[in-house]
Fold these 4 entries.
Entry 1:
Amino acid sequence: MREFPIAVVMERRRLDNLWVDEAWEAVGVVPAFAEVDPAPRQIVAETGRAQWRVGGFALELFRDEAENYFSNLSAPVPKVFVMWRREGELALPAAVSVSYGEAARWLDAGEQVDGVPMSREVADWVGEFVNAHYRPEPRRKVRRNDPLAEDRVASGGQA
């Protein structure tokens, strides 16, 4: 399986601030294998806080990103990265990824990106892909700067 269907949970919090009255954030990602309707659906409505479940997304894995997936899985808390944009009254996800590199490219392009903790189910799926496709580069010996090396060469090997 090269795709993992998911839905994103977006949260709006009311703020007591003169310049900004609300803040949006992606707060979760859930499997969506049997999804019928991917449209945004409000799932929490509390004073000062509301959440929407937005479906229709799939995590995709690519061999050339395997090192970035490995780096993500090696982190203390692996993440699913959600790029989102404000559209009218809602903030809606535009793309999802488990690649550090892709998330960095989105941020470099000025996009809004949140990292949400990766579920065990997603982590296992990404881990299988990494085990099958990631081969670390062999380590190369690094020569340290030796301040006496030039003196040895100049004196015929004796310092």
Entry 2:
Amino acid sequence: MKFLTGLCLVMATAVTAPTVWAVDNDLKEIRPEATRNEWQLVKNDATRNIKTYIKQNEDGKRIHFKIDAVIEGSMEKVARVHFDIDNIKRWYWETTDSRLLKKVSDREYYYYMSYNAPVSTPDRDAILHAVVEPYSPKKGYMEIKVNAVPEFMPPKPNLVRVQAQDINIRFTPVTRDKTHLEAEGFVDPGGMVPTWAMNFIQRNAPYTTMLGLQRMVATTSFRDGDPSPFAISE
């Protein structure tokens, strides 16, 4: 995933103080206390067929998100963009590095990602474990399940390791050239992250990542006959 194998969706670029103030106040309007732990629609882009949702848990330490999108591309192509680990950094939110660490089988692998952090906070990195559930006509979808494994390799200097991340990404073919993508999960970025940064990431990262994914699907070519590195169909 990279959703959204991802959304790791833990970093944001620097924003000015007025922008931070606006983000916090916007989120207060859509996150009343009475709706904690309930999904709230944040983005509804009818033109691009992207909806994103957020949820605030009680401890406030995790970024919860949900995505419902239709991607203009076949299920195989959307999946292969996720499986192209080295190029995830070209479309995933604020990602500076992405690379495969270990291929266990055509249904399981480990990979590395690093991210830009907001100004004055250390950058982050994550070690992620992905399990692929290939498509079958009986199920009607394929799925990638991603979770963080922070102890898989030693920490790197000047980087804070993501401590927890669970994301499920489901790909359902709509037509030959359209794929329904659903992703849901959370990220615990580890260390100290300002509240405004957590809110900004939660609200913007999933949508921006979907825009990047759509662009990659539209512009990336895979040679006919080249096998996928991981299973797409049973």
Entry 3:
Amino acid sequence: MIVIFGIKENLNPIKAQLSDVIHGCMKTVLKMPEDKRAHRFIPMEKEDFYYPGGRSDAYTVIEINMMSGRTIETQKRLIKSLFKEIEFQLSISPVDIEIVIKEQAPHQWGFRGMTGDEVRDLTYKVNL
């Protein structure tokens, strides 16, 4: 699951395109299938969204929650791909993007009535 935060006046107009960019990177780097898009957008009032100096109102935070198992190299490749593609396709500077990957053990995920360590029919690999 991916959660995206930003100032609503900047985030709302680009939500669909940003979702496409993020999912494109997930498919390319993590080999996620087309139908595994789980994005949650949190458009915020400017007065509720504090961010570091040197950033513009385009500042966007992307939190990627995933089961543990991807290598450091794979995770770094995903982050760098997101920076590159967001800048190329949406003209948002990497200085205005913050990405955090939060890993949880498979047993800490619950979906389709089971935990992640019990599922046997994933159409993608977690360990890559």
Entry 4:
Amino acid sequence: MAAMDLFGRRWALRVLWELRAGPLGARALLARCEGMSSSVLYQRLRELMASGIIAPSADGYELTPLGAALSPALRSFHEWANTWAQAQEADALKEPLTQSGGG
């Protein structure tokens, strides 16, 4: 599976982001990824394990050395996402408020 295909799957990057600080169990991952179903979580975990990016640990799941090497890219993406969100918010504030008028 190509990296872009893997990382483009819903919740894959979020799972990696949550594992960046250390191992987490499935329940903790589900709690941190509000709205993700357990079936999707386990599918992503299987895919990330098969790709050598995460591994099971005594505490749940953790990044492998290969997965940990993604940390700089994840931080850069997180910083960009924050900048983008701020720009989106600023643009929304610039838009004039429209009133729906009836005839």
